[in-house]
Write a structure and sequence with these properties.
By secondary structure, this protein is of the alpha+beta class. The chain is built from five helices and eight strands; from the N terminus they run H-E-E-E-H-E-E-H-E-H-E-H-E. The strands form two sheets. The chain has a six-stranded antiparallel sheet, with helices on one face. Strand 4 (56-63) and strand 5 (66-73) form a beta hairpin. The longest helix has 9 residues, at 103-111.
Length: 161
């Protein structure tokens, strides 16, 4: 097994988000019981509003011929990805959800009609992930995207005594 070990207590690597995109046309209330959100102008405004501390997430939704950008807030404790799955995405079949690390690509999937809704998440911190694990909790699938990634072509010497 290949791995890269980093001392997270010293390095504090950023934990970048992996956004959730619901494939297919958006339903009138998709998903059911979702919390209210507030319209904003565009993707830049959505991304500026995302805050893991406040559980602020973004939404890009297609309604007929219109694409709407919005931000919403969840209840609970960070990380936002966990609260989003518990409060918004809990009833969505897993085969409808795609995971996209690029917010602009997630937005484009909605604009093009390939997807009905994209949920944009803020980055989080290593301590928040540790807190969930210390309490015996679990994170949803594809919750973390650590950076930096090892460079392609990096040579590692085999450990052979």
């Amino acid at each position: 097994m290949m791995m890269l070990l980093v001392d997270a207590s010293i390095e504090q690597p950023p934990v970048l988000p992996i956004h959730r995109v619901l494939m297919g046309a958006a339903q009138p209330e998709d998903p059911p019981g979702r919390p209210p959100d507030w319209p904003v102008r565009d993707l830049a405004e959505v991304l500026a509003a995302l805050r893991d501390e406040d559980l602020m997430y973004g939404v890009v939704r297609r309604t007929e011929d219109l694409v709407v950008h919005a931000v919403g807030s969840l209840q609970g404790t960070p990380p936002t990805v966990r609260a989003l799955h518990e409060q918004v995405l809990f009833g969505i079949p897993p085969e409808r959800i795609r995971f996209v690390p690029d917010a602009a690509l997630a937005e484009e999937m909605v604009v093009s009609g390939l997807a009905g809704t994209a949920y944009l998440l803020p980055p989080t911190r290593v301590e928040r992930i540790r807190d969930v694990l210390r309490m015996g909790g679990r994170l949803p699938e594809k919750s973390t995207y650590f950076w930096p990634k090892p460079r392609t072509g990096m040579v590692i010497r085999p450990f052979d005594p």
